[in-house]
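Notebook, p. 212. Picked up where the previous page left off. The plan for this session was modest: take the two constructs that came back from the sequencing core last week, fold each one, and keep the raw output in the notebook itself so nobody has to go hunting through shared drives later. Recording the first one now, exactly as returned: residue sequence, then the structure token string.
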Amino acid sequence: MYPRSLGVFLALGAITIGNAAPPDPSVFETTTWAEAPMLTNPTSISFDTEGRLYVAETERRAAVDVDIRSHKPWIMEDLANQSVDELRAFVRRKFAPEQSEANQKWPKDLNQDGRHDWHDLKEITDTLRVLEDTDGDGTADKSTLFADGFHEEITGVAEGVLWHEGDVYYTIFPDLWKLRDTDGDSVADERESMFRGFGVHAAFDGHDIHGLTVGPDGMLYFSVGDNGTSVMTKEGERLHYPNQGVILRCHYDGSGLEVFAYGLRNPQEIAFDDYGNLFTVDNDGDMRGERERTVYLVEGGDSGWRLNWQFRTEGWSKYTKQPTYNPWIDERMWVPQEPGQPAYITPPLANYSIGPGGFKYHPGIGLNDDYRNFFFLVQFPAEVVSAFRLEPKGASFEMVDEHPFHEGLMISAVHFGNDGAFYMADWEGKWQPNDKGSIKKVDDPREVGSDRRKELEKLLSSDLKGKSKEEWLGYLGYADQRVRQRAQAHLVREKLAEPLMQVAESREAKQLARIHALWGLQQLHGEGVERFIERLPFQDPDDEIQAQCAKVAGNLQLQAAAPILTEQLEHSSARVKFFAAIALGKMQPVYPQAFDALVKMIEENNGEDAYLRHAGAMGLRAYDTTY
């Protein structure tokens, strides 16, 4: 049985608690915003700028989505699959019409042709729906089917949706889709498979594509579970990670697809904080003594998981009288940093949670100020939505102020609305789809209708075409992350490099405004921003500004910054050293003087900070053919 409260975890001492008491969630009220039959079986939700809610729904899960746990004799054959085409051949072979008698238990004869075969796996589609509150009374009153027809025999479960600047991104094995409604009827009339090749194994259902997220660098980020990835980029490169979960990113037109981090099991959703740091809570491997993990996702980071370890024999060896060897467990890759772990991994920050699902960061205006800088995590089987903060510790972070935020509902996904309220998708069941589902709204009645809430909703819903350049620059420091991102995107589209540089170098500007300005300059790569190298505030008294300068210089491959980055390897801030080392690894041609400095940094760290060790290795990779 799963606990209804997380107190047991706190008692184990696995989670650090902050100095002050966590905020009080009892001040919030929960109401129903929408309910069945307007929606059923919600798995992911996303608002557009008009306040319409896009809901990914599933009927395929368990009914027609193959799960290898129900077909254990096929495990080795399934692990041999290396592409979705091989998976399709495997599925058609195992569920061939002549195998109907052997497969009578599953699947059901859904097409009623008298056979239990792969044709039945095509009979159920997952769907994407739009919910609207058209009369402004605070509850949804209109439900429209936005898109369906996702029902190949190898189609997985719809697990991700993101509205972004008129496009709707939607994930379901084996594709990442881009959908668009061009005539305003809330029905997609354009659809494009941006990428195909996700889910090369049947493996475990639910280990799908999800986590669609807007990145600080103006890129689309998303996660894929350990059912595997083997996908061709627009540029013709094969990204082949068949036995592990990965975090990918690309531009919104699909160009530049790359793996950002890997070695994960099933990171349901990912979330950026205000400073561009990326986190997830990853599922455990259902093994002896193991637990889920809070993970700091860093560029090039390997969390250590491989799908094939899932199926290594559990138990005791009759020869050694010891537990059978499993690298994940026996090399302690699932626990926070400790001596003896493999040095190539970036270990988790904490062991934490039960069945992690939806995951979001407080955008800045929402609920109330007590919850600023908090992350919100769905713990699905425990019927808990928990909240916690992540504070800097060395080159990474530690978890503090963890507490239950909401309890008692089978929540699957969460999202902050344009009105500042916290919306939760209620599955209203256990693991199987049903005819139930609702959207709950959580909010602080003291904040509803406040001036800042009204202003936020206006800024998120308006096209803002009449705003001046000065107003847009001012929004770079706005209290809400979504407005800052919108301002950054506008200034980039207008190619306003000089105004962005002026904000970035101004010590009078707000810290977050300066950081968004730096990110905007990075997005203007190819627009001559290299000319600003001497003006980048590497010597700023704010260590965070220095760290962000290093990050941007590396992403832009500003060769002229290499001497400064090399000096930063001896900085007092581990975070500055972290980004300087990674940046140096991107310089081509390499900066020869940095080699000895990188080695020195690694030696002085002596493995004490796993993330500095990783950054050093990332820095040295540029020298693998030089030294």
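Okay, moving on. Second construct, recorded in the same format:
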Amino acid sequence: MRAMSMLPPVRPRFLYGVALWLLSLAVASAQGQPASAALAAQAPISAPGWTHAYAAFGQPKYPPGFTHFDYVNPDAPKGGTINLRNPDRRSSFDKFNPFTVKGNSPTGLGIFMFEALTVLGSDELQTMYGLLAEAIAVAPDKSSISFRLNPKARFSNGDAVTAEDVKYSFESMSGKYAAPGLRAALAGVERIVVLDERTVRFELRERTNDTLFTVGGLAVFSRKWALGPDGQPKRFDEIVSEYPLTSGPYTIGKADSGRRLEFRRNPDYWARDLGVRRGMFNWDRVVYRYYSDQAVAREAFKAGEFDIYKEYSGRAWVRQHKGVKWDDGRIKKDLFETSVGQGLQAYLLNLRRPLFQDIRVREALDYSYDFDTINRLGLYKRAESQFNNSEFAAQGLPSPGELKLLEPFRAELPPEVFGPAYRAPTTGRDPKRLRQNLLKARELLAQAGWKLAPDGKLRNAKGEAFEFEYLSPGEPGRMTDWQANLEKLGIHMRERNVDFALYRRRLEEYDFDMIAIAGGDFTLPDATGLLSTFGSKAADEKGDNNFRGVKSRAADHLIKLISEAKTLDELRDAARALDRVIMWSHWQVPDLYASDQKASYWDKFGMPERRPRYFTIDTASGFPAWPLETWWIKDPAKR
């Protein structure tokens, strides 16, 4: 019996660190553009066209000059050390540049070092507030977005953050030496123009909300990062071992052999009194230790080697997050409920393989997966949407707005798309219902030309056996229940477990039959991410996110409409229509999601009274890692 688990999101390597955060920020309000560079430099935030914040829909919650976010303690004490572990599958690091392809950068860079032009508020649907940029202006037709930098903004070496640094950062991350996915994310920008020392304008090729918020989330670093012997910047992919020169609250204090990394708080951090930063980043030191094995990491946590453990395994949550230290209160255990939308965690079928090109075969695999038995502890919910835990998941019959969007593609879509929303097969842990589901699977396979041969194997007209491989970087033995059900149908599924480096290379080459992937978190559907995951163009671009190999005119069109939506109603209709296409096409076997994040932590922390709506525990995946950014040590003198 495999352990039920929430998988850490797996994405191409460019999405690690701050680049992952880059693709998640959003802003979509159109404002006027000043007529000249001089006006841009002199205009106050309240001048026409300039503002401190943009809401995707509606108005920003926090006014100009606000003192702090409601989910922080503005008077939180500073000091002490927080000890952490690697929160994802990277078991070591060998570079400090998270924007290039080769190698692994350490976790934490995007949280503690790199800063963007803007940050998202975490207790409202989607609003961007200026950080490095004190003011923002968007052209009425969304043809450009301008930023005026805060005159106080400084890199850790004391240099002012300038428009030329913004330009250098953009050109580095959109240039040929950056990771392909990162270049694709920034491809909507036509050019960047420096208007004066503190003002920069991005002229946009793609006049969409996604392009606006991608630019708003642009990470900025100094032109002096890794200067060569001639005083000129190195080629971007040659910046490897040099510590980043950034504007964030921490610098790297010490790195040991790719297995331990220490951040130290910059006492001169320029933004410590800004409303978007007050009460945040309260540790003097942040220490990451890297563990290659989850079981070892859990024991290390119990021994006090690190302070917070986010649990992905349901079985481990029930059976291992308990004991004397929990009973006497030294360790606390909590379900952190969030309003974060949950992308689709599923077993993705590689449609490039002839075996999976028939929709009846893919649907049969769905019927063979007994989620109810695997989820016997009841800790998770069945994923039935690309947009779980949100209002963008399809519901009931299509609305008139959805039907209008779907109708032009009726001939090429499964008829179920035009009926009730997808609901996964269930068994209720009833053997009779499981048998019914397996009989339905056998019927679908027979329709697709697969018959049970005398040797007990399912074979097609060519005599080929139905066999495929599940590729995983995790521990073996997790698929035994599903394998047993498939064997009843005459199907053999091999489970191959490899180290993460090989796993990632095979994903980049699309060299697999089936993999398990956790979709990204979101507040609003992210058209850029959806295009990378389901866009036809991405299916042929190795190193992208279209692991399924989907090529669908309907999906391409609906993703385009999501990016162009001007109202919540338009966005909702397009997203729900896309959801129906994704789920009823059976490009995957859906697994699970959770509206909470499960974590244990040592009882040494103070935390704000109010929690945000949108946050994560220990990674920068488009939302703030609320504990890492806002908690504090209750008694810094002891740490």
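Notes on construct two before I forget. The chain has 19 helices and 29 strands.
Flagging for discussion at group meeting.
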